[in-house]
Amino acid sequence: MKLLVAGGAGYIGSVVTRLLVQEGHEVVILDDLSTGHADSVPEGVRLESASIADADRILDGAGFDAVLHFAAKSLVGESVERPSIYWHTNVVGTRLLLDAMARHGVPRLVFSSTAAVYGEPDQVPITEDTPCRPTNTYGATKLAVDMMISGECIATGLGAVSLRYFNVAGAALGAGERHAIETHLIPIALDATSGLRDKLTIHGDDWPTPDGTPIRDYVHVLDLARAHVLALGAAQPGEHLICNLGNGNGFSVREVMTAIEEVTGLPLPATVGPRRAGDPTVLVASADRARSKLGWAPEFDLRRMVADAWAFRGTAPEIGDRR
Ligand code: UDP
């Protein structure tokens, strides 16, 4: 297929791009490089360094078979402090993309949604029928886009798959996490392990969980990427399929820390700080629908995610500047 990957220079987009190329697809990346990296774009892939508002020009007469849409602002804390940027980039940006796709007859969309749409769920594991009650602007904007896509499928016959990611980690195919502003547990903990930071601050250890730290469902970025390839084949005209992507296993912050110490063989200096606003206690996915509708099954465990992220760090040029 001929594919436009919006946000393909970012963490997940760059891994998915590499897998798509490996599978024989023709890929063009659209990325404004606001958080992505031009050198994450693999050889043989054209980079359109432009805003999502330029999708209309790029799709015009080009015969694309599908768009994979990763281009979004995705920091929970920032979304609470600066909601306007999130509504404009994530919602208005996607509206412009959908209009351009309809105008130029692009029949399929795979969209990066998030577990943040569910907020603090009443029960786990979370299925796609769990009520969506986002607790921050990031989750609200992704939910708004999911709703927009549902309407688009009915109105235009678009075939779409939204993939709701839980906690993505690891590296694959020469690409990995290279965020200038890092907020995620595993890369921050690896910084602390290797001395790039003094320590990890645990965001509270008084949560109602067995060891007092919050529990999350970690999924390897290569497993996630494989779900995107499967989603391209599963998209049906006029239908919007929504699937959670997680392993179905929960790990606490302290369990992740133990895995990091075991995998790296190094001590992880840490201190306990206050809870982080907006953090839910437990988020664990039911990925039954992804299994049945996409034929997806995650392969890699938490230790493999840590090992791959640890190995990738040695190759990422800017990690040394992240203090
Ligand atoms: N966390 C932490 N210290 C950090 C970063 C994260 O204790 O420096 C905790 C965070 O409170 C949450 C878990 O690690 O319980 C996973 O957080 P992350 O930001 O990686 O992903 P999220 O679940 O927020 O999307």
Automatic annotation (TrEMBL):
It catalyses: UDP-alpha-D-glucose = UDP-alpha-D-galactose. It comes from Nakamurella sp. A5-74. Residues 4-239 form the NAD-dependent epimerase/dehydratase domain. Homodimer. Pathway: Carbohydrate metabolism; galactose metabolism. Keywords: Carbohydrate metabolism, Isomerase, NAD. Gene3D superfamilies: NAD(P)-binding Rossmann-like Domain (3.40.50.720), UDP-galactose 4-epimerase, domain 1 (3.90.25.10). The gene is galE. This is UDP-glucose 4-epimerase. Its cofactor is NAD(+). GO terms for biological process: galactose catabolic process via UDP-galactose, Leloir pathway. InterPro entries: Epimerase_deHydtase (IPR001509), NAD(P)-bd_dom_sf (IPR036291), UDP_G4E (IPR005886). It comes from the Bacteria. GO terms for molecular function: UDP-glucose 4-epimerase activity. Signal peptide: none annotated. Its EC number is 5.1.3.2. It holds the Pfam family Epimerase. SUPFAM superfamilies: NAD(P)-binding Rossmann-fold domains (SSF51735). Transmembrane segments: none annotated. Belongs to the NAD(P)-dependent epimerase/dehydratase family.
